[in-house]
Amino acid sequence: MSLRAKLTLGTATAASLLLLAGTATAAQPGAPGIGDPYYPSAGNGGYDVSHYDIRLNYQPANDNLSGTTTILAKTTQDLTRFNLDFLLKASSVRINNKVARFTQAGGELVVDPRATLRAGTALTIVVTYSDVPSSHAVDGYTSWKRTPDGALAIDQPDIAPWWFPSNNHPTDKATFDVSVAVPSGVEVISNGTFGGTTQQINGWTRWRYRSAQPQATYLAFVAIGQFEIRQSTDAAGRPVLNAYSERLGADHGASVASIERTPEVTEFLEESFGPYPFEAQGGVATPGIGFALENQTRSTYDAAFFRRGSNTYVVAHEVAHQWFGDSVSVRRWRDIWLNEGFASYAEFLWSEHVGEGTAQENADYLYSLYPADDPFWTVLPGDPGAANQFDGAVYDRGAMAVHALRAEIGDEAFFGLLKEWLAGHRNGDASIEDFVALAERVSGRQLDELFRIWLFTPEKPAAAPGSAGGAQARTAVAPAEPKSYRKIRETRELLAAHDH
Questions:
Q1: Distance separating alpha carbons of residues 481 and 489, to the nearest angstrom
Q2: Residues above pLDDT 70, as percent of the chain
Q3: Nearest to 248 by CA among 348, 347, 158, 148
Q4: Is the residue at 21 inside a domain?
Q5: In this protein, which residues make up the domain named Aminopeptidase N-like N-terminal (predicted)?
Q6: 188 contacts 223 by C-beta, under 8 angstroms
Q7: For the chain, which has fewer Cβ within 10 Å, the N-terminal or C-terminal residue?
């Protein structure tokens, strides 16, 4: 759910020209949106963020969240004012230790620094606020999830505006420090490395986390409540932190049996994707969110994924996102196939690894599952539209598209391509067009037709991905369902459930 209903507070208009030695553009307001076609008001223009320091207090009893967020940024143009994406009620804003004027409306915090900020100026922006996050909704929906024992700040593509002010788009990543004080006896989980707790004199405890690698704002999360926390290290010596809600009930055992295998799944995926890109890993299991999300270093899973026993397929999906989506993020939300197609294909790879069905068998079965007249085939994984961004076709047809590419260029070129792609765009963002260009360069083949058929054609391809010669569909006998598929299907339906 994007803040697409935000009020547009004006666009950056052409400024008057200064006739000096040449012409230059005068200072002007930063744009109220980055310009993403799916969510035009997401993000902001005129500055680039390098770090967020989020220091908060949260009272589960009344859902009050208060504190300050300090933003380190640099202007990218001469600015007369700029926007932050934020829903909660701010009480003060300071820029480089000077009080700034501000207004709030429609999910935008508009900051007036009282004087022009020249391009290249280092900014320390301090926003103080206090509010009830669950009282704020956009199009009738709130991404902040209040629970019986606390709250969860988790959703895609938007969660940040419900708990910290930001430049809310994946193309402006930053490092994070998150510090949350809660009544003692309540636990807090966030991204990155756990920095410990401090007992406060008021009977509260402060929890600290640090994300040392650049992170998109929607991947920053916090889970507050009653959790069992398990800490260990993986084979590379990285810290592993897993957390299990005390409300899991009968799903507790299967949740632990799945999420505790995160380092094993990570080791396996490193063989295909290259070195794990972050400093920590882990997962969180909790009831009531209805989906799983790849929060950077600490994916979060609804307990329903484990209702029928352990499920390492959803773990493989979310761990794969640490490369595809977290380390290499979408340039625009239309590029979502780069996230979901490859994370879904990781489930095929895991199925093959554990002997429950080859990638080809999974691709064949999926292809046979949807008849030609099924609306499934009308959704374009390469440009699904905001309304279908998390449609099942983005996952399933997206995974078939990946397998079609693998079959076309061969394993050596395919896995070499993945490693080069992830290494070359690490900690950045990229587009489908970037990926196609690299695939053609690595393979030495012209691949426009393959991508057109699998990503951009609103009909069922004539041939299953990987069909001999790529020309004829396998129509003689419907392929058997792979052993893995029931789990994969369960996983897929829940993963797509957060399409708001």
A1: 11
A2: 88
A3: 148
A4: no
A5: 50-219
A6: yes
A7: C
Query: Does residue 449 belong to any structural domain of this protein?
Result: yes
Residues 152 and 208 in one domain: yes
Tokens describing residue 302: 């609804």
Cα distances (Å, whole numbers) of residue 463 to 361, 362, 363, 401: 14, 15, 11, 12
pLDDT (tens digit, 9 = 90+) per residue, 341-370?
999 999 999 999 999 999 999 999 999 999
Tokens of 472: 């004829």
Residue with tokens 């994707």: 273
Asked whether residue 306 is assigned to any structural domain, the reply reads: yes
The position carrying tokens 């900690």 is: 427
- pLDDT recorded at residue 468: 55
Q: Which domain holds residue 65?
A: 1-8+27-221
Two tokens, residue 245: 């809600």
Please report the pLDDT score of residue 478 as a whole number: 59
Summarised one tens digit per residue, pLDDT across range 424-441 is 999 999 999 999 999 999
Which of 301, 322, 343 is the last residue before a domain boundary? Answer: 322
- How far is residue 357's CA from residue 112's CA, in Å, rounded to a whole number? 59
- Please tell me whether residues 145 and 43 are part of one structural domain: yes
Our count of domains for the chain comes to 3
Residue 19 belongs to some domain of the structure: no
Query: In this structure, are 171 and 203 located in the same domain?
Result: yes
